[in-house]
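Record 1 of the preview.
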Amino acid sequence: MTEPLVRERNLPSLIWLIPVLTAILGGWLIVHTFSDRGPLVTITFRTADGIEIEKTRIKYKSLNIGVVEGVSFSPDFSKVEVRARLNKDAGNFLRRDTRFWVVRPTLSARGISGLGTLLSGAYIELEPGEGAPQSLFVGLESPPVLHSDMAGKRVTLMARQLGSIERGSPLVYQGIAAGEVLGYEMANDTRNVLIHAFVKAPFDGLLRSNTRFWNGSGIDLSVGPNGFQLKTESIQTLLFGGIAFDTPDTPDSGIEDITGLVFTLHDDLKSIKDQSYTSKVRFVLYFEDSVRGLSVGAPVEFKGIKVGSVVDVRLDYDERNSTFHIPVVIEIEPERIADRGQLMKRSPKDAFQTLVKRGLRARLQSGSLLTGQLFVDLDMHPKAPLRLAKLNRPEAELPTIRGAGIEQAVASMSGIVSKLDQVDFAAIGSELHSALKGANALVSEPALQSSLVDLSASLASLRNILRVVDSRAEPITTNLEQALLSARESLDKARETMTLVDGVISPEAPMHHHALRLTEELTATTRSLRHLIDMLERNPQALLLGKKPMKEQEKQ
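->
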């Protein structure tokens, strides 16, 4: 049997090329995969509502740039940590100021947003920022109002109270939406509210150091001589609140650089105009009338023009004589009065003291019959006495008189009440009761009932007589016509027996005289019958009551 021949080879076998190539290919794939893999980012949210692993996308300008790979609790279980893998080319977005937020359907002052997520599901929106690279972020709980690529200016406002203004409320200029409210916070003094807002371009070019802001929320309903007036900035500010602003066109146009400035948010435009008068002088008034209806802020007018307002109304007790006084403190704004000289500007108190010597007096007047509000009316009353309380107040005192309208109304009411007190209502009631009782007895009297029955029977008889007269009137006329016709025939027969002279009856003939007399009597009889018939047609009751006198007939 032949033994096999074994030879040793110095070179490796070709079979080893397969695992080597496989390892090289696998390593290349691993290196390629890790080199093309994007950065991993961790985002902290309060809840994971709407976020799903491997489904929730990371988007920037509606393009997918990553996907959520995992969701877990934070170490203290107070928040959730979302780990998302971004594309390699999105690594430059991860900076210190980069913001993330979850996009869901939302209803806010700006309207409804995120409706597309109803079908596709929620997603995480990214907004690139600036600063150093970073991989750990705190997500926003709601979408930001202002995006980093929006041109404009930020402004800070200070208000006494927030009212209906909220995040996303509009800033309005001349009725046009010019910006939005970014947010708000309590001021350091804990008495005011700081409101952060943004004004978009090109409206940001209108901002100056003298720009005025006022609350444009709600409606302004006022009652004046022209009736009811209803004002509002826009429907959006009416529903969601808003802020209006304007820059006055004055020689002092203000400073364009508003960086670091804090603007005052006024209650309304009217309050801005009132605060434009910086000079104020206080006076005190003591009224004899009731001050019910007079409140702080009520106007002080001079001949119908506002020159100030009421700043204080209170009740003071004087222990010396155990009496009460009601000092009404008013503020007069001398700048509202156009003074051709300089007295009002140099010394307003001296100017008013001069006017008091000439008859300046204050009184209470009703400003509205609907609300009953009062205001202080200043006017010249040279004949009115100078009445001053002189209670050592720090403010200068102005004399007062009783309100004309109130005094007249009270005097009239007092007179009416006094006259009513003198009326004996009990006696009037007793006499009225007696009169009604007598009228009732008269109506119930049997004789009156019998008279009414007899009167009804008489009217029925009169109606029958008139019916008979009406039926006989036409036959009487017919018989009369027949009588006249017979008389004419008799005259014709008599004419045949008369003496004729040239064919005419002789005037000396006796028959001639008798014929003329008969004709006259027949004519008078016919006329009388006609008068009788005419009278009966006008007054049929003459057959029962007789013929009325001539004066009564003429009246009829």
